[in-house]
Amino acid sequence: MTSKSLTPSANRRTELLAGVSTFLATMYIIVVNPAILSQAGLPFNGVLTATILLSFFCSLMMGLYAKNPIVVAPGMGLNAFFTFTAVKGMGLSPGVALGAVFWAGILFLVLSVLNVRAAIVQAIPKPIRYAVSAGIGLFITLIGFENARFIVASPATLVSMAPLHDPIMITFMLGLLLTAILVVRQVPGGIIIGIVLTTLAAIPIGRWWGDASAVNMGLKTLVNFQGVLAAPDFSLIGTLDLVNSFKWSLWPVIFAFAFTDLFDSLSTFVGVAEAGGLHDEAGEPRNLKQSLMTDAVATTLAGLLGTSPGTAYIESAVGIAQGGRTGLTAIVAGSLFLPFLFLSPLLSVIPAIATAPALVLVGAFMMQPVTKIRWEQLDDAIPAFLALVLIPFSYSITHGIIWGFLAWTVIKLAVGKPDEVPAGLWVVDGFCLLSLVNG
C-alpha cells in the first residue's frame, strides 16, 4: 500500500512512528557526544545540554523549513576532529575551537546562500570523499577501542591489546558483541540499549576489584550516582572566542570543519534520497538548498551553544524505512530529545566503556563508501588509500585530507591526466600547503 492510498490520519500515524524510530536510532549522540567533547575539557553536562538543544532546534528547522524527514545533531567525526585534532592535537582552547566551529558555520552559510555547492563538490574527487568518510570511521573506531582500554600504548609495538583478564576489556567485549547483535537484528534503539546494558555490566567492577581500582581504570560505579533529575546546564552557551578563532593561522581548521560538514551532509542527503525516493524534478535530493542551509545553521548554532558542528544524520534512513516522508518525522524525532535536558545526572553515570561499543560500530557503518573506490585504478586508489589510513594513523582528520588532496594532484599530473584535477582543487591544494607550512 503506497502512501497515497493512506488516509491523512494514517499518514500522520506513519510519520509519528517514523519519527520515534529515527529518534531511537540517533539518541545515542546524547551520551556519546558529551563523552567525546568532555575529553577536550568541556563539562559533560554542559555539552549534553548543548547537544540536546542543537538537535531539537535544527531538526525542527529541517522539518519545518526543508520539509525533509532528516534529524540534525552534532556529527560523529566532527566531534572527534574538535577534540583530538583541534584541541588536543593543535593545542587550541575549547573556546577558540568553538569559535572556529561558529566561523565554519558562517562560511557554510555563505556557500549555501550563494549556491556554490556544485563547484565545491566538483572540486573534490569522489574517491577522496569516499576515503575520507571511511577514514573518519576508522578514527572513531580507534577512539572507541582506546576509550575502552582495549588498545593501549606499548613501548615495543607503539600500540597493543590490553590483557584479556582486564575487567574493563571483558566488559567492553561483552558490550560490543551484545550491541552488535542488537544492531544486526535491527532492534529499535539497539545502540542505546547496548549502552545501558554495558553500563549495568560495569557497575559490579568497582565492587569486585575495589572502588580505587575502578577509579584508576576510568570507571564510574554506583558511588557516582547523583540522582536522576537536574536543571539543564547552560554554562557553555556563548563561551566561544570569536576574536582569537578568526586568526589566519586557524583558517585551515575552519575550512576543515566546513568542508567535512558539507561533504558529510551531501552524502547523507544523497543517501536518504535514494533510500526514500526523495528527489526533485531534476533528480537531486529534495529541497537540497534548504537542507544545506539548515545544516549550515546547525554548525553556526553549535559554536554558540557549546558543541561540535551539527550535521544531518544518515540514521534518518531508519525512519524513512518506516514510511517517514515529510518534515513531520524530523519534528517528532527532534522533539523527543527535549526531555533528556533534565536527565544529566542519570546520563553522566555512563562510563567510557559503555559508549565505546557505539563508537566502534559507528566506524563500521562509515566504511561502506570504500566499496565505490576503483581499487584496480591505482592513480585513484593510492591517494584515496593515503587519505583513508592517515586519518587514524596520524590521529588527525586534517592531515589525512591534506595528503589525500595533494597526492591526487601530484599523481594525476605525473601520469598525464591533468584534466582529472578540477580547477577548484588547485585552490584547495593551496590551503593544504599553507596548513602544512603553518603546522
TrEMBL record:
Main localisation: membrane
Keywords: Membrane, Transmembrane, Transmembrane helix, Transport
Topology of this chain in the membrane: Multi-pass membrane protein
Superkingdom, natural source: Bacteria
GO CC terms: endomembrane system; plasma membrane
Coiled coil: none
Molecular-function GO terms, alphabetical: purine nucleobase transmembrane transporter activity
Similarity comment: Belongs to the nucleobase:cation symporter-2 (NCS2) (TC 2.A.40) family. Azg-like subfamily.
Name of this chain's protein: Permease
Organism: Arsenicibacter rosenii
